[in-house]
Write a structure and sequence with these properties.
Helices cover 19% and strands 26% of the residues. The chain is of the alpha/beta class and 352 residues long. The radius of gyration is 23 Å and the shape is globular. It comes from Trichoderma simmonsii.
Length: 352
């Protein structure tokens, strides 16, 4: 008489099989299963998994014909759903809760990871807020919702003539690396222990101000990306910054010296004939910040470096109206009309 044997124990392998779903292949949607490993975070070859009888998923999820697409990464987000990352709260534990609320709502927009951005502020705000904005494995763990890849400090080492909506009164210069530590906080620029991540992923600064260009190698040595932005830098000054290790340009064309036929300014470092590595660059393609032809020129100059950013603010997800905004030492209103944001009583574009 045959003996009923219990199935052998099978250790979990972290594989999830999504079935009854559609995937984008080229320019078509095709019906195909998708296997994903939660251990590596990578898509697994479904054909190999199917033909290997020993590989069974830990779970199978029927998506009922829905589309699976890659999550978007927003490298410049100032806030969303009513919360501005450049906000100093009396109880900073509430700041961390607000960040998590934003992250849970952010995935509804298709964004699964992002760089939370703090604009030009007083040192106290950077020092207290940055620990809550670091990448997973710093002070926060990945939970349901979008994941921070590390904070973006947009300022306060910017040009006062290219400040945009940044408060001129809080803009400063750095002469030494200690000046950076005094502003952002030494604890935000130094790992707590070997192998730890620091909360800052990249900074935007004007290389022509103070001794900033000379400080670039020390920043990049710590794994911090240096981005040129809000700057009056000439072509020569921008080239020197790239030579020192700058690998990014913040919202190209906006808040910087314009392209001139005798001095191409910051845009000139994107030329294909340059001997230096060409940096990546952000573009706000909302139909407000840049003319469509300007965007095409930027793309054609360096397609591999082209990054679409939202530069969105905390008014994302809110109805039209006037909303308070902390700007350095002052509080002013930003008026939201559709996708356009303006400083109250002005024509200054505050973002989108």
């Amino acid at each position: 008489m045959p003996i009923a044997l219990s199935p052998p124990f099978r250790p979990r392998n972290g594989l999830t099989k999504f079935t009854n779903c559609r995937l984008l292949r080229g320019d078509k949607l095709v019906e195909e299963d998708l296997w994903v490993s939660s251990l590596s975070g990578k898509v697994v070859n479904s054909q190999a998994a199917f033909f290997d009888d020993l590989v069974l998923p830990d779970q199978t999820i029927d998506l009922g014909g829905r589309i699976i697409s890659p999550g978007m990464i927003d490298v410049q987000l100032n806030g969303a759903f009513g919360f501005n990352f450049s906000t100093l709260l009396d109880d900073m534990s509430q700041y961390g809760k607000k960040v998590k609320e934003v992250q849970k709502l952010l995935v509804q927009t298709g964004v699964t990871s992002y760089n939370p951005t703090i604009t030009s502020q007083r040192p106290e705000l950077y020092q207290k807020a940055l620990p809550f904005l670091g990448p997973s494995g710093h002070l926060q763990e990945a939970e349901d919702g979008a994941e921070s890849l590390g904070a973006h400090c947009e300022g306060p080492f910017l040009s006062p003539t290219k400040n945009g909506v940044h408060n001129v009164d809080v803009l400063i210069e750095a002469q030494t690396y200690e000046d950076l530590e005094a502003c952002y906080g030494k604890h935000n620029l130094t790992p707590r222990a070997e192998g730890d991540k620091i909360p800052i992923k990249y900074i935007t600064a004007a290389p022509e101000r103070g001794q900033m260009t000379k400080l670039i190698p020390e920043l990049t040595a710590k794994g911090i990306i240096y981005s040129v932005g809000h700057s009056e830098a000439t072509y020569e000054e921008a080239s020197k910054a790239v030579e020192q290790g700058a690998t990014m340009i913040t919202h190209l064309f906006n808040a910087m010296r314009p392209l001139h036929h005798r001095n191409p300014g910051i845009f000139g470092v994107l030329g294909i004939a340059e001997s230096l590595p060409r940096p990546y660059f952000g573009i706000i393609a909302d139909g407000i910040h840049l003319h469509p032809t300007t965007i095409k020129i930027a793309f054609n100059s360096h397609p591999d470096g082209f990054i679409l950013v939202t530069d969105a603010m905390h008014l994302v997800g809110l109805p039209d109206g006037a909303y308070p905004w902390t700007n350095g030492d002052t509080t002013c209103n930003i008026v939201k009309v559709g996708s356009k944001l303006l400083l109250e009583n002005s024509d200054t574009i505050a973002g989108r």
